[in-house]
Amino acid sequence: MLSTLMPMSLPNPNPNAKGITITNSSSSSRGDCFSFNKPNLLSSLTSLHSLQLEYSGSLIRLPVNIRTPPKKFCHHALTIRNEVPQNADFPRQYSKKEKKPFPTPIVEMRRAARERLKKMKDALRKPMSAPNNGMLVKSLIPTAYNVYNARITLINNLKKLLKVVPVHACGWCTEIHVGPVGHPFKSCKGPQANIRKSLHEWTNAYIEDILIPIEAYHLFDRLGKRIPHEQRFSIPRIPAVVELCIQAGVEIPELRTKRRRKPIIRIGRKEFIDADESELPDKIPEEPKKPLLTEIPDSEIVAPVNNEETVSIAEETLQAWERMRKGTKRLMRMYRVRVCGYCPEIHVGPSGHKAQNCGAHKHQQRNGQHGWQSAVLDDLIPPRFVWHVPDVNGPPLKRELRTFYGQAPAVVEMCIQAGAALPEEYKSTMRLDVGIPSTMKEAEMVV
């Protein structure tokens, strides 16, 4: 039917232009076959204005406009990556009627317990590694001394900073505030809070309000029997961080502890006997590998003389705070620390004690026994978050703009107000990038 069509031609505005010619070959056995002659586009882009279509002697010329694509320039965008989030929520305040969550989900703990039961027979035959065999981890002994000295340095410097940085504590609850005046937020949960409309009554704070004293029983033998309820008053209690350092290798003459020179011989799941050390030579008393610092009495504390000394003490305090927390976290990976899921009781050792002195919610149903679980760093060293004051010399915090203010640990807030540089890891909870409205009308416009 195509052969009966009449030839048709369209006017060509540029007869010298090159095009694409399509020809029909009738000698092909497979039907109509089309062959394409590709022109040189690079040499004729400026003069190509038409397309020539040739079909069985007929020419069809169509005007065509070919545009050269615009040049694409690759712009490399500069991306700044920051591991610290821009803003982070404050740590959750758990109710006294609520049990602390397990650091490891209960499903994974049960699965790990089943695996231990399967490998129990093989584990009894294989030698255990330190500190489960009663020996010390030698690589962690310097870390234990650093943590102990960092704690002493932190306490001594905080006592000095309290002379120049005002810290307020509520007389009815445990909340504190670092700044010239106490904050106006209605968050008091102490006795008679309804009468005072949840307002705080601010007084001067002490070192115990900034560093919460967390104590634990001192163990003469960390692998010995658990402390019974009848011996709860005869065993001394010391700071939990100090007890962790002692078990990790710190030698304190006043607090004796058992040091084994041979691994124990385990004969059961909870039964073992000490190896015979009579063949070993007598132990020679060694000097402390690192001198231990001592706390300065409150009567001998001297305030910083000038601003430069205050900034220097603040920087040293921040370094001691970070060194103590990082070192303690490293020690807790090897030396187990237990915490009660209902109260702040801490026990440094493989298993918790049996003292029935838990007074948390519904302790009568548990007969005063603790619900022991694995502890985290904040259980051993609570950070004690306080409201961050953007400008110490500026106006005080406003009750209506509470959602715009950030929080920081009390130690960090004291050091910042004393002139120390702000650490990167605390910027997310301090909300430094949040613009604080000047008036309440401006705050209502925030979406």
UniProtKB/TrEMBL annotation:
Pfam families: APO_RNA-bind. Coiled coil: none annotated. InterPro entries: APO_dom. Residues 169-254, 339-424 form the APO domain. GO terms for molecular function: RNA binding. This is APO domain-containing protein.
